[in-house]
Amino acid sequence: MKFSATKEKILEGLQQVQNVVSTRTTLPILSNVLLQAKEGTVNLTTTDLDVGVRGGFEANVDKAGATTLPARRLFTIIRELPSSEISVEVDGKNAASIRSGQSFFKILGLPEEEFPPLPKFENAKVVTMRQKDLRDGLRKTAYAISTDETRYVLNGVLFSYKENKLTLVATDGRRLAMVDLELEFPRSHEADIIVPTKAVTELARLLTDDGDVKISVGTGQIAFDLNSTLLVSKLIEGNYPNYKQVIPSEAKERITLERETFLNSLRRVSLLASDKSNSIKLSFSKNNIEITANTPEVGEARESLPVVYKGRDFSIAFNPEFLMAPLRNLADDEIFFDLIDEMSPGVLKIQTPFLYVLMPMRVSA
Amino acid sequence: MSFSADSALEYLERAHKKNRLAHAYLISGPAGSGKSVVAARLAALLNKTTPERVLQGQAPDVLVTEPASRSRKIVVDQIRGLERALQLRSAGNHKKIGIIRDADRMQTQAANAFLKTLEEPPQNSLLLLLSALPEALPETIVSRCLSLPLRSPSEAPFSPEEEQLLRLLCATAQEKPHVIERAYRVSQGMQGLLNAIRDQIRDEHAEALKREETRYRQTTDGGWLREREDYYKALTESVYRERRSRLIETLFLWWADVLRAKIGEAGRLLESCAKATAKIAAQLNIAQVLKRIRRLEEMRDHLNTTAQEALVLEVGCLHIFR
Q1: For site-directed labelling of A1, which of A15, A65, A249, A257 has its Cα 20 to 30 A away?
Q2: pLDDT at res. B237
Q3: pLDDT tens figures, B125-183
Q4: How confident is the model at residue B299 (pLDDT cuts 50, 70, 90)?
């Protein structure tokens, strides 16, 4: 195998795939990246057996071929090379010679046959959507994924295909984020699947604002084809809890808020939310919200926010982190906060189909 | 009721054909009764692979867990890793099979962490717990599994080191009773045997590590190899303890025969040593024999603590073989 390419192209390609290489591996070859050179491109593949990514870069391929090289070692060498033109030649014993300007490196690899192939997708159910839509959807939901390993079904995002909608849901039991995306697909494609956190994180990194993504759902696995890159992942076993029953069907009060302003106020006041109770209180009165936090023996913070509000006076408390997370990840200027009373969950909404359900915290009078 | 390895496998196959396999089995039986073989053959049948690949840990969707810590325990991280793997769906149409060898060596925390998964494993998975000492398992684990006891094979062959130990015991039986030299000889002999076993295991593992190092040192990133060194260190200790416990079991067989000779019971576990055990029996009364068996139990328990091995053996032999 022999090819030459620019340093930027190779680095970009390696950055796309190298996150999947895990530090704790069961097979030594999993810390290597598979390089396959042919017809003007070099494909790069990494996998940890649960998640796999294939990317690539343009190159002048003088001699087609394939090998595997230690991913981190290759990346650090390429990053430090002095010149922008890099040529790589691999001999029959998987020894790679890397030349750039005055520098020369030789590193050893393992034969490509040892590298576990990415799974094949036969009879997969395929849908296509805009990358931008999926990226926005994941951004609005992924922060609510649970990290509690005892409830493993929550350690991912639910992809629910139903009635020409793709619904994305993430929850950790105290809050829930949900997005509906319009999507055309035949009835036979209806399904509920759970994509694990690692795949969601990688996917969010790879998705761009242009182009389409082709999603294939096979038995126990899913593939996201982004034209230049491909991500495959195993799915989480089990059924996602019935999330619909935690979404309040009614709302007594709707408060319209400016997202940035609200977020900034919360951020300031939360500085004095105690580590122990970690709560922040919102007190509603006529055309005003008072946001307060206090830690006994440390101090208190208070801030007023003028709003349009004509309902009854009441107070409700929330975990400040949980309240700020969606505000940070939304892009809209205006958000709606639906409330019932001090004991019922609050719901954040925007103009497009999105909602965020947040359980209130009990406050002592 | 206990099964032979073949009939146990037939039973499991029948259950599989009728789609009535339970979610967890506890396959128990003495060493050599074929627990691993039954598990490997069942896994191979379900996932269409070969038993050899299962035992080497290379079969898809089969996860083998065994004691690999220095104290020969299955630690909680191993159980968590197994659980995590079971929570992901299989890529093919396979069953996910978790095989836990020497399940009785699970740490308490590991066993507790495992309870929830064991009671309600993720869909499409099967758990096989193997144990030679099922009574050492917590009740909470046993009650969550279907028990499948295996019969001991009709003739369990002795390993070379067990043969050597028996020869040593027979030889010392001819010596003058009630003198300290006899106990000392047994203790020295045992320690010699144990040292040889330890050296042999260490050499084998050093060689395996070296083979892996020459292959992977330069061709992959270092993380895996660093872990391997620790892994082999722990494995050496773990395998050593297993073989040491077999020698101790042999001592139990010996004293069981002495007791049989003393009370005039026919049949010997160690046929070849019948004369020697009879001779020992003639030198002691029943209370003395029972006392020595209790001392042997104490020695076995002490060996599983952090007490210094040589000291435990010397003190133990002094009581047991004087």
Answers
A1: A15
A2: 84
A3: 999 999 988 888 889 999 999 999 988 765 567 888 888 999 999 988 888 877 888 88
A4: very high
How many whole angstroms separate alpha carbon A197 and alpha carbon A147? Answer: 9
The one-letter code for the residue type at A76 is T
Residue B202's pLDDT band (boundaries 50, 70, 90)? very high
In this complex, how many residue pairs, one in chain A and one in chain B, have their CB atoms less than 8 Å apart?
A: 77
Residues of chain A with C-beta less than 8 angstroms from the C-beta of B87: 152-153, 155, 236-238
Region of B274 please: left (phi>0), alpha (psi -120 to 50) or beta. alpha
User: pTM for the whole thing?
Assistant: 0.81
State the DSSP string of B218-248: TTS-THHHHHHHHHHHHHHHHHHHHHHHHHH
Select the residue from B63, B89, B226, B227 to test the A interface by mutation, using most A Cβ atoms within 10 A: B89
- Among partner residues B91, B216, B221, which is closest to A234 by beta-carbon distance? B91
Nearest CA in chain B to A154: B87
Chain B interface residues (partner A, CB cutoff 8 A): 80, 83-84, 86-93, 116, 122-125, 212, 216, 218-221, 223-225, 227
State both tokens at A250: 């009614």
Q: Which long-range contacts (CB under 8 A, 24 or more apart) does A88-97 make?
A: A88/A1, A88/A2, A88/A3, A88/A4, A89/A1, A89/A2, A90/A1, A90/A2, A90/A35, A90/A65, A94/A67, A94/A68, A94/A69, A94/B219, A96/A67, A96/A69
In chain B, residues with a C-beta closer than 8 Å to the C-beta of A118 are none
Cα separation, A39 vs B209, whole angstroms: 40
Q: Which positions 100-139 of A are in contact with B (Cβ < 8 Å)?
A: 107-110, 119
Question: Of A70, A152, A220, which has the smallest distance from its Cβ to B219's Cβ?
Answer: A70
What distance in Å separates the CA atoms of residue A320 and residue A264, rounded to the nearest whole number?
12
Strands (E), A91-154: 95-100, 103-108, 125-130
Q: Cβ B221–A73 below 8 Å, yes or no?
A: yes
For residue B227, give Cα distances in angstroms to A139, B54, B56, B235: 36, 23, 19, 12
CA distance B296 to B277: 16
CB contact under 8 A, B88 and A71: no
Task: Give the Cα-Cα-Cα angle A4, A10, A14 (nearest 5 degrees).
Answer: 140
Query: Is the C-alpha dihedral spanning B162, B163, B164, B165 positive or negative?
Result: positive
Q: Which helix (H) or strand (E) holds A169?
A: strand A165-171
In tens, the pLDDT along A87-116 reads 999 998 899 999 998 999 999 999 999 898
Q: Which residues contact B226 (CB under 8 A, 6 or more apart)?
A: none
Query: How many Å apart are CA B168 and CA B189, to the nearest integer?
Result: 7
